[in-house]
Design goal:
Layout (H helix, E strand, L loop, with lengths): L9 H8 L5 E6 L11 E5 L5 H9 L2 E2 L2 E2 L12 E4 L6 H22 L1 H12 L15 H4 L5 H10 L5 H9 L1 E2 L5 H18 L1 E2 L4 E2 L13 E4 L7 E2 H14 L12 H7 L4 H11 L2 E4 L2 E3 L6 E2 L2 H11 L1 H19 L38 E2 L8 E2 L34 H7 L30
Parallel strand pairs: 5-9
Antiparallel strand pairs: 1-2, 3-4, 6-10, 7-8, 11-12, 12-13, 14-15
Helix pairs in contact: 3-8, 11-13, 12-13
Length: 453
């Protein structure tokens, strides 16, 4: 089910689908950031007629909403390859550091090995597990070995590196070296991270609620073959830099922002919001006569309305408190959903004037055209529209998005021939059409104007 509204919950889908034979489970996706719609997957056994079930569900409306179910195809490629540069020894060692950090954080978050430790203490003996056994002796592969003393002694008598020598070093060809022992340890932790914590490391993504999906371990990304062409040190450094930026989200272990960081985002104060709510529901009709719009009752003073709202409308005040808590928790979440950052639309031809002048912006299917004057000169409408928007301000957004404009410059009609010739740098070999003689069209059999009957 591709788009379920937010007021349909999971239990309603379960109660609806469990009436059909072969029902297994239901999974919901996260909400869409724009329309708050969700996707839903209903899993059945493979021996049922799934198309017949979809046809029956198509006829059902749940809370006046159509379900529109479709059959989900099987996964085409369960194992997907990433760049083979990740097999290089330095890249693999860097990946091993990140994976070890991830496993330690996620094990502590879900308290996986604390329960095993407590069980071992109860039973006694040597069964006590103090840490994840998959990370045993992992430090042997995380620490680099360098001959720092030898380099220091040689560097004291040698020449210092110049910028040219550093550039030559970056552009020098580097052979991809593979450390099989290191790769073996890395693969073992990759499997643990993917199966236990549902984290696909090479895709830098964490699959939420994967145990409820149709394929519980659906997609995994693995290292690809070693590139056949020679690479430089700069290529390897750029690959590691891009991959580190991609991993920044899952390596951000901060669960909540502190108070100083939250103050910069503008949190709400509970007492101030309650005072605003009471003030907005206190209306003065005349002298010594006040109205509470929540109940329609009238009072002699504002203080009586305050006591009335606090005593009789506690549910409304509790709703304000919950809204403040919800908003502040949203601000404190470092992984909160935010608006998608689209590229800024390119400005079209023509200059952008001040108030009252035409606003010319290249149309885009995802960009709402600003309010201005259309080609007919009617104020108040979006560029190129008529006077139906009369009375709207210049900065008001239109009620729909315009289709892509093939002529640019905010026009909704092709340019004149003289403007097109000037724009393309010439007249096309002909003279201006305004210099031609005007052609008259009249009936040849009609009498002249000076003939008298």
């Amino acid at each position: 089910m591709r788009s379920l509204p937010p007021f349909i919950n999971k239990q309603e889908i379960v109660n609806l689908c469990k009436e059909y034979e072969g029902f297994v489970r239901v999974a919901f996706s996260l909400q869409d950031q724009h329309r708050f719609l969700r996707r839903c997957w209903v899993t059945f056994n493979r021996d049922v007629n799934i198309k017949d079930i979809c046809w029956k569900l198509n006829k059902i409306r749940l809370r006046d909403s159509e379900l529109n179910p479709v059959v989900n195809r099987d996964l085409t490629r369960r194992v997907r390859a990433v760049s083979g540069i990740s097999q290089h020894a330095s890249c693999a060692r860097n990946d091993l550091r990140n994976i070890a950090r991830l496993i330690v954080h996620l094990d502590a978050k879900w308290k996986l090995w604390e329960n095993v430790k407590a069980k071992g203490e109860e039973e006694g003996g040597d069964k006590e597990v103090k840490e994840n056994p998959w990370l045993k002796n992992i430090s042997d592969y995380l620490v680099d070995e360098t001959s720092a003393e030898e380099e220091e002694l040689l560097g004291a008598n040698g020449e210092k590196k110049t910028e040219e020598s550093e550039k030559e070093e970056d552009s020098a060809a580097v052979a991809i070296t593979r450390d099989d022992e290191l790769i073996k340890v890395l693969d073992r932790l990759l499997y643990y991270l993917r199966i236990v914590h549902s984290v696909d490391y090479y895709n830098a993504s964490e699959y939420f609620c994967e145990d409820e999906m149709p394929n519980r371990c659906g997609i995994v990304h693995a290292r690809g073959p070693i590139p056949p062409n020679m690479l430089t040190k700069k290529n390897i450094d750029e690959f590691q830099k891009r991959f580190s930026q991609k991993l920044a989200l899952i390596l951000n272990f901060k669960e909540k922002l502190n108070e100083e960081e939250a103050k910069k985002l503008g949190p709400k104060d509970e007492k101030a919001e309650i005072e605003k709510f009471i003030a907005s529901n206190t209306q003065e009709l005349e002298k010594d006569k006040w109205l509470c719009p929540l109940s329609g009752k009238k009072f002699k003073g504002k203080e009586y309305i305050r006591k009335h709202i606090q005593n009789k409308h506690k549910d409304k005040i509790d709703a304000v408190r919950n809204e403040v808590k919800y908003f502040n928790n949203y601000l404190m979440d470092p992984r909160r959903p935010g608006p998608v950052e689209n590229q800024q639309p390119q400005s079209g031809r023509g200059n952008q004037q001040g108030s009252g002048g035409p606003v010319q912006i290249a149309a885009s299917p995802h960009y709402a055209m600003p309010m201005g004057r259309g080609p007919g000169g009617f104020p108040g409408g979006p560029t190129g529209m008529g006077s139906n928007y009369r009375g709207r301000t210049q900065f008001a957004s239109p009620q729909f998005q315009r289709p892509p404009n093939p002529y640019n410059g905010g026009r909704s009609y092709p340019p004149r021939r003289d403007q097109a010739a000037t724009r393309h740098g010439g007249g096309g070999g002909g003279s201006d059409y305004r210099s031609r003689a005007r052609i008259a069209y009249h009936d040849l059999d009609a009498p002249d104007a000076d003939d008298l009957f």
